[in-house]
Specification:
By secondary structure, this protein is mainly α. It folds into three domains: about 1-35, no CATH class; about 50-80, no CATH class; about 85-245, no CATH class. It is built from twelve helices and two strands, in the order E-E-H-H-H-H-H-H-H-H-H-H-H-H. Strands 1-2 form a two-stranded antiparallel sheet. Helix 6 (about 135-140) packs across helix 7. The longest helix is centred in the C-terminal third of the chain and has 28 residues, at about 175-205. It starts with a strand and ends with a helix. Bound molecules: zinc ion. Zinc ion binds near residues 123, 125, 126, 129 and 140.
């Protein structure tokens, strides 16, 4: 909210609590610095403008264009990888959230002060590591087994990437162009199904084996490729045995 003080200067009230931690304090100072030269016409209605286009109107296509053109960060390169038309929206959105650090794992909830004081922030599967996004989706022994099985399925020999961003962008040598396209589908569906298995375990006490998740991942990707006309539905056996043969 903006108000005008007795000297006629504008004052910003962000409606924040009085006690902020060091990180939030820095964010507020940065925000105030960005607003230092902003003057508002208090008699006009507020409106939202997209400054990157001439007509000041936002569209998803414009947003993607600006991110791709800016090329400032690895995360922007992920745009092309994540927004794959073969991947259902809710799974692509989850993939994007994972890359952006927006998945509400315990570490994130703790950072946002959303966990009760003294609440356990450890991974529910291994109970030994803080449940971070990279731990949950990649490095927890349970998840690691999923990825190891997937690498083995594709006969890939590699060191486990360190982060969800790294594995999303990984270019595995030895894969043909079409095989790489298929492999691109594996990341989002794996993240999504690992997350569902985690939630089922955490909230319903229902344990799902990593092997069943691997089978589910294989079937999901196969279905997407069948729906897109990239493989034939009767090729399921080949898909399970030698997927790269089907796609080269
Ligand atoms: Zn774990």
């Amino acid at each position: 909210m903006v108000s005008v003080n007795s000297q006629g200067d504008m004052e910003w009230d962000f409606g924040l609590p009085n006690s902020l931690d060091e990180y939030d304090e820095r964010q507020v100072l940065t925000l105030k610095y960005l607003f230092r030269d902003v003057s508002l016409d208090l008699d006009k209605e507020d409106s939202i403008l997209w400054v990157h286009s001439v007509n000041k109107v936002y569209s998803v296509a414009e947003g993607v264009r600006v991110m791709l053109e800016s090329n400032l960060d690895t995360e922007f390169v992920c745009v092309k990888v994540v927004w794959n038309k073969l991947v259902p929206s809710k799974i692509a959105i989850f993939h994007w959230l994972a890359i952006q650090g927006g998945v509400p794992v315990k570490e994130t909830l703790s950072f946002r002060h959303c966990l009760r004081d003294g609440a356990d922030d450890k991974c529910g599967w291994c109970s030994s590591q803080v449940e971070s996004i990279d731990h949950l989706l990649l490095h927890c022994p349970w998840s690691y087994n999923v990825w190891s099985a997937l690498f083995s399925w594709w006969k890939l020999v590699c060191v486990m990437p360190s982060s969800v961003v790294e594995i999303s962008l990984a270019c595995f040598h030895g894969l043909g162009v079409k095989a790489k396209e298929a492999w691109r589908l594996i990341c989002p569906v794996s993240f999504w199904l690992i997350w569902l298995a985690r939630n089922n375990f955490l909230f319903n006490g229902s344990y799902q084996s990593w092997k069943s998740v691997v089978e589910h991942i294989k079937i999901k990707v196969f279905q997407w490729l069948v729906n897109a006309g990239k493989v034939e539905s009767f090729h399921l056996y080949v898909w399970n045995a030698q997927p790269w043969m089907l796609l080269k």
